[in-house]
Amino acid sequence: MSDRMSVLKTYKLFIGGAFPRSESGRSYPVNDHRGNFLANAAQASRKDVREAVTAARKAFPGWSGATAYNRGQVLYRVAELLEGRREQFIAEVAASEGVQAKRAQSIVDGAIDRWVWYAGWTDKLAMVFGSSNPVAGPYFNFTMPEPTGVAGVLAPQQSSLLGLVSVLAPVIATGSTAVVVSSLDRPLPAITLSEVLATSDVPGGVVNILTGRAAELGPWLASHADVNAIDLTGAPESMRADLERAAAGTVKRVLRAPSSEPDWTRAPDISRLKRYLEHKTVWHPVGV
Amino acid sequence: MVAPPTASGLTPEFADVTRDESSLRRFLHGLPGVDQVGVEQRAAGLGTRSIKKASKLWAIDTAISMVDLTTLEGADTVGKVRSLCAKARRPDPDRPEVPKAAAVCVYPDLVETAVRALAGSGVGVASVATAFPSGRSSMRVKIADTELAVAAGASEVDMVIDRGAFLSGRYGQVFDEIATIKHACGDAHLKVILETGELATYDNVRRASWLGLLAGGDFIKTSTGKVSPAATLPVTHVMLQAVRDWHDSTGELRGVKPAGGIRTTKDAIRYLVAVHEVAGPEWLSPELFRFGASSLLNDLLMQRRTQLDGHYSGPDYVTVD
After folding, report:
1. Residue A258 placed within a domain
2. Which residues in chain B are closer than 8 Å to A250, comparing Cβ atoms?
3. Which B positions 282-321 lie with beta carbon below 8 A of chain A?
4. One Pfam family, short name please (chain A) (predicted)?
5. Is the Cβ–Cβ distance between A181 and A155 less than 8 Å?
6. I need a labelling partner for A180 at 20 to 30 A (CA). Which of A18, B53, B129, B191 fits?
7. Is B257 a catalytic residue?
8. CB within 8 A of A126, min separation 6: which ones?
9. Which listed residue (B158, B162, B176, B218) is catalytic?
10. What is the CATH classification number for the domain harbouring A92?
């Protein structure tokens, strides 16, 4: 019976809610940890970065302007869809990362839980990061957090799903929009995540996922004047200093990365959320 | 024909054409039909030309110098016009070498403000007139509108043709109106807005173009920007062919101005390629080709920065208007 040939996949990028091929026309084979062919993935170019940033910028007013409650609901809904694709994620994580099924299962569950954890933060950010400040004068003085803008995220190279969720979810939970460069050798969970996002309520352009080389795309993201923050987690260590320098030229928030990938299974804290928030302080006269 | 003023400098051939309504109709309807598929294919084909590096930089600077920086909103204020004028004088304040815009285009009542803000800069002031954008008013109002703009110091007048008259075949009336307004303009340049989005066919665009040229328009302009579709490449092709043919038969150089819907550098460069290929290189100058645009200038400036800085630029680095 098993004469059937399975359909071999050539995946595409995820930009502005659509799935275009790379402008460059390039693709590359993705293998599992043993070197067996899994699928072809698109290899993004600098122009794909440009398009993705344009899409992310366009999506920013709507996403950052949505109420925190609404953003939370949208993210919870993504978690529901992740749950629905659980088996696929487990298979892809197992194949990509070369872990046993049981371990893959716990990674996927951890990733979904992390997504929910960040989703819960959307309507609590203002209370935790904002404040009402005492001032010596007849004024109310408030500080409130606002989303940073468009964030470029070089996703972890090793942890293809849990790591990806851990760096992406805080960006969109704050109301920023993201251009993600996925793991080069392990892009399948990121591609499946893009399919999840495309069928969820997340507006097109809020998350854009590019598969390809962080070493090639990183410099364009870091120097792009319309990107407001960059996460260097997935950047090659030798390039990080240069990327930081390029980012400094256009005043970006830079999330530095430890020299080796952190243990993503550790319980998260709010530090990543904090990096994608800007503080605005308002003075308001009292008693008028 | 009723109107006393006649288009000056017409060769005998064309003077004959404009003698009366029926000869005008015979001429306009005798113009060769436009091959719709052909012109669209040619426009799309020329649009695929790749312009890079030094040529792109040249194209960007040329396009900046051709921009008629336009604000035609009911909500326009003196302050907005002034800031637009400042931008036309020096589009990118960080880089003084960026060329000036060609003109600022406003409603007649704001011409005075613009003239004062642009004094001595070499940037022209264009005013829309003749009951812009619909053109639905009496001739007296249209003339008064034009005179108001010219008296306030406008160096260019953008008039709209009466599309109702044109579409019902009253070519003589349209001709007379253009000729009368041209007379009212005095020394100011006249741009004739055909509003191609309302003309329905390329044949009509060709006829209206010739009508505008015969009646003495210095420029023919695609659209008001208030009707969709506004400027498109194929329509601009047809108009460029008209000015080229006009030049071939009379030796006079007349200009073309696409307006509305041109927002990106890529679009602008496609138009420049069309100008070069359809009309000819001498049209690649602000004297003979303009872009009616507002947001285009910012995109041109961003692309210029991208070319020179080696990294992508963003809207945070240009002025908001």
Report:
1. yes
2. 311, 314
3. 305, 310-317
4. Aldedh
5. yes
6. B53
7. yes
8. A68, A144, A145
9. B158
10. 3.40.605.10
pLDDT over threshold 70, residue B2: no
In the set B142, B176, B257, B299, the catalytic residue is B257
A57/B317 Cβ within 8 A:
no
- The answer to whether the Cβ–Cβ distance between B313 and A220 falls below 8 Å is no
Mean pLDDT of A232-258: 94
For B167-215, what is each residue's pLDDT tens digit? Answer: 999 999 999 999 999 999 999 999 999 999 999 999 999 999 999 999 9
- CA–CA gap between residue A281 and residue B45 (Å, rounded): 54
For residue B315, being part of any structural domain is answered with: no
B311–A220 C-beta distance less than 8 A: yes
Marked catalytic residue, from B162, B182, B221, B299? B221
Of A253, A231, A48, A44, which Cα lies nearest the Cα of A154? A231
Sequence-distant contacts of B30-33: CB under 8 A, at least 24 apart: B31/B203, B31/B206, B31/B207, B31/B210, B33/B203
- Shortest alpha-carbon distance between residue A128 and chain B (Å): 29
Give me the amino acid identity at B21.
E
Interface contact B186, partner A, CB < 8 A = no
Report phi then psi at B114, rounded to 5. -65, -40
The total number of structural domains in chain A stands at: 1
- Determine the pLDDT at residue B1: 39
Mean pLDDT of chain A: 96
- Amino acid type, B24: L
Give chain B's domain count: 1
Question: pLDDT tens-digit profile of B49-98?
Answer: 999 999 999 999 999 999 999 999 999 999 999 999 999 999 999 999 99
Task: Domain of residue B33: give its range.
Answer: 12-309
pLDDT tens string B248-298: 999 999 999 999 999 999 999 999 999 999 999 999 999 999 999 999 999
Strand partners, B106: B127
| A223/B contact by beta carbon, under 8 A | yes
Catalytic site residue B76?
no
Which of chain B's residues have a Cβ under 8 Å away from the Cβ of A57? 314-315
Give pLDDT, residue A259: 87
